[in-house]
Amino acid sequence: MYRPATTIDTGPPIPGLIGTSPAMEAVYRLTRKVAKTNASVLLLGETGTGKEMIATAIHRLSTRASGPFVKVNCGALSESLLESELFGHVRGAFTGAINNRTGRFEAAHTGSIFLDEINSTSLFLQVKLLRVLQEREFERVGDTTTIRVDVRVIAASNRDLYAEVDSERFREDLYWRLNVVPIVLPPLRMRRDDIPALVAHFLNYYSEKNDKNVVHIQPEAIEALQDYHWPGNVRELQNYVERAVAMADGDELTIELLPDAVLGRAERRAGRIRGVDLETLVFEVVQQGLQTAPAEETELHEKIVNRVERELIVQVMQSCGNVQTKAATRLGINRNTLRSKLQQYNLEADGEEQKAG
User: Fold this and answer.
1) What tens digit of pLDDT does each residue of 61-111 get?
2) 278-355 maps to which CATH number?
3) Residue 67 per-residue DSSP state
4) Mean of per-residue pLDDT scores for the chain
5) Are residues 88 and 141 in contact, defined by beta-carbon separation less than 8 angstroms?
6) N or C: which terminus of the chain has fewer CB atoms within 10 Å of its end residue's CB?
7) Helix, strand, coil proportions of the chain in percent (round to 5)?
8) What pLDDT band is residue 10 in, cutting at 50, 70 and 90?
9) What is the DSSP letter of 99?
10) What is the pLDDT at residue 11?
11) What burial class does residue 79 get, using C-beta atoms within 10 Å of its C-beta: 0-12 exposed, 13-18 middle, 19+ buried?
């Protein structure tokens, strides 16, 4: 059972952002520091962790705040449409191009452009993106006139881009151009102390939106929310709170208003991490550890190992229904060692073995 912090400061360190966990404080520090520069930023993290919100904060805190902030979801368009969307086109460039069109890079001149799901772009488009980053110039589709732009690039990926480079799905030269300052957004399961503040925020928002007055949160409900794995991260939490507000008859969010998945009555959805994906898990934790690295290298190593081990045990226990014997077998350790680890990391199992005494 997760043990939350005794106090939580709900005031956002950056306007519009919620959370005071150490993982998020590291993100805020990097965001504030890099915002004042013109360096390219690469936001990494699972779907639903708030990459777009951090990108928006970087723009608003920058010297370009008075300029445009243009967002592009690179994963939502085909290659041909995305090329036209990014760089524009001239009349007659292709079937259906009946007028000249300004592209997103041109529209973002003197401001910032946010390229979400950059990992989904084709190698062909990556070449054109590399040129914009290096030379700050491009041509519209079907045109030979070179257009120069002054734009700050913020990109985001829900995958490890360097692994994509190794798989030859992403250009290494573009990776290094984008990865000037990487910021890793922690998954919600690694910032559980922020859940009460997030729930309170969403309660206020959806109560006002639906003309309701759900202002209280049952302690058992918060406990259940903090114990859940959150494969969909903050976006999933937001969805469940909206659902609870819509279904509530009184002024309290009770445990009965939460979906079966949170209450352990449905098979847990693995999301991006299916089973125990050690490569993804280690990547997340190491990146987070580097952002908050202590002075001593040995201390950093121990901190990272402990985080990985704790998260691994949490995942395995949940996938095994909190049955210690099954979890110990899957982890390759004996039951006594698992019990010791559960105590070390302030975890408790509520499975059938504990009920049996």
Assistant:
1) 999 999 999 999 999 988 888 999 999 888 766 667 677 888 999 999 999
2) 1.10.10.60
3) S
4) 83
5) yes
6) C
7) 50, 10, 40
8) very low
9) S
10) 41
11) middle
How many other CB atoms are found less than 10 A from the CB of residue 350?
13
Cite the DSSP H helix spans in the chain.
22-35, 51-60, 79-87, 104-107, 123-135, 161-166, 172-178, 195-209, 219-227, 233-247, 260-263, 278-291, 297-319, 324-331, 335-344, 352-355
Radius of gyration of the chain from its Cα atoms, rounded to whole angstroms: 23
pLDDT in tens, 124-161: 999 999 999 999 999 988 888 999 999 999 999 988 88
If you ran DSSP here, which 8-state letter would residue 172 be given? H
Please state, in angstroms and as integers, the Cα–Cα distance from residue 203 to each residue in 94, 229, 243, following that order: 49, 20, 10
Residue range 188-263, CATH number: 1.10.8.60
Q: At 4, list the tokens.
A: 């939350």
Residue 246 to residues 219, 220, 225, 293, Cα–Cα distance (Å): 20, 19, 18, 43
Whole-number Cα distances in Å, 48 to 42, 51, 157, 341: 16, 8, 11, 30
DSSP 111: S
- CATH class entry, domain 22-184: alpha beta
For the chain, what percent of residues have pLDDT higher than 70? 80
Q: pTM for the whole thing?
A: 0.72
Q: CA-CA distance, 151 to 339, in Å (whole number)?
A: 54
Strand 137-139 to strand 146-148: parallel, antiparallel, or no bridges (unpaired)? antiparallel
Question: How is residue 329 written in tokens?
Answer: 């077998």
- For the chain, give every domain's residue range: 22-184, 188-263, 278-355
- Please calculate the CA angle 304-2-49 and round it to the nearest 5 degrees: 65
